[in-house]
Structure formats: structure tokens, C-alpha cells
Amino acid sequence: MPLLSTLLLATLVARAEDAIPKADYNLKLDPYNIQFLDYQFPSGVRILFQEEHSQPIVTVVNVIDKGSEMDPLGSEGVAHLIEHLNFRARHGDLPKNWDLLHQLGANINAYTNVDETLYATVAPADSVVPLLRIEALRLKDTLENVTEQDVDAEKSIVRNELRQSYENAAIGEGFDEISRQLYPEDWPYHRSTIGTHESIATADLKMVRDLTRDNYTAPNSTIVVVGDFSLNQAGDFIKQAFGDMPELLRDPEHPDAPLELVEPT
Predict the structure, then answer these.
(1) What are phi and psi of 204, to 5 degrees?
(2) What's the predicted TM-score (pTM) here?
(3) In whole angstroms, how far apart are CA 128 and each of 38, 118, 227, 238?
């Protein structure tokens, strides 16, 4: 390029840079102080509350600190099957969880990965106690009222999910292949969370009950409650939801010790 053209181009670029305003990358955010309470009970269960008044709703999330890592070898996909079965669970004379949640007008979701299983429910703000009660019963009853017919029905549903999201969707199989290439065969991350048709077929009622009893425990449970309520109601919410099941909050080595609901500091 001739020297004159080069100088002219450099001058035009310099002028253009001067004309374009420079972005201010110093973020200026309004102060936001999250007010919350964090109850940590002797049993190991943890319940957090946060006020959020933008909508007249409440969200309750229960994170179980176990996922497909608990699947027995050859029975991959059972943890995910248990996630499904929890919506079929019945507690005493109550309808199954799925029906209870819909009666509350709730929006529900859940997922299973290697390290955790999560249940998330959004419902009207006056549903805090019923939603917490369902999470308490989830830890106490451990699928005792689920039937073999429920297990068979959900196995068919999970296998359809396997077909739809993995076998007929390149991205699902792609993620599984990445895990197989990255992790050794004896590592939980190597295996597919959803399992295979053959591994799902091995699940039966005893297997899902045993795995739930051993893994859906208070030390593995963190419950988060966010919504349109006052934090000074949190203690009453816990008493109403867990009051007749203090064993879920007490130290298992001292089951008869009095339980004091101490306000977190």
C-alpha cells in the first residue's frame, strides 16, 4: 500500500476511535442486602429462609446431596427413577404428592445429576407450610407407600425420556460420550445419569426403597424457602411442618433430647 494511503487510513482510524464513545466498565449497582435466616439442626438438615416480595408466591427447593453416584453398578438410572417416584409418593391418607402439589396451584420441577437430586416448587405465598410439610414427609416416609405398579409405570416413563432426550437427540448422547471420554470407567461421572434400557429394567420396589432410605436423609438435605413472607414467621413455619416429626431435626445420637428452635444469628 502506498505510504500516502497508509497515512490517510491511519488518520481515519484514529478519528473514528475518538468519535466512538468508550464504555464505562465500572459497574454501578444499587446496594442489595439479602436478608435470610439459616437454621442448621443437630440432625444435619439445613433450612434457609429469604424474604422476596416482588410477587405473592413462594419457592421451596430441596437439594438432596446424592444423585446418580448412588446407583448400583448395572442399575444406572435408579436415582433418576427415584426422583420420578417421589411425585407418586403417598403419605398416610393423603393423595400422592403430584396431586397435592397441583391442588396448591404449584409449578413443579426436579432433576437428577451425579452429585445431587433437586426438587423445586413454586406456589402461592400461603403454601409455605404445606410445601415444607411435603419435604419433611419426603425425608420421613422414604417411598414406603409407593407400589411395584408405580415403579413399573415410572420405568416406562423414564425409558421414553431416554428415547426422546438421548437416543433421538444428538446433544444428549453427546454429553454422555464426553463423560465417557473424560472419566475412567470406575468413576461415577463416567456413567450416564439416566442409564440404559437394560439398567433401568433392573430396578424394583426393594431397590428404590433401600436407596431412598439410605440417601434421602436429614444430613443430605438442604431446604431453601424464598418468597412473600416475613422472616419472623420462619420459626412458626418449621414448627407447623416438622412439629410431629422432631426426629428429622434432633441429633440421632440423642433422640430424646429436647429440641429448641434457636433463631439463627
Answers:
(1) -140, 180
(2) 0.84
(3) 16, 18, 9, 10
